[in-house]
Amino acid sequence: MDYQDNIQEINDNDFNIVVLQSKSPVLVDFWAEWCSPCKSMIPILQDISKKYVKKLKLVKINIEKNAIIQEKYLIRSIPTLLLFFNQNLLGTKIGVSSQKELEFFIDSYLKKL
Question: Where in the numbering of this chain does the Thioredoxin domain appear (predicted)?
Answer without folding.
Answer: 1-111
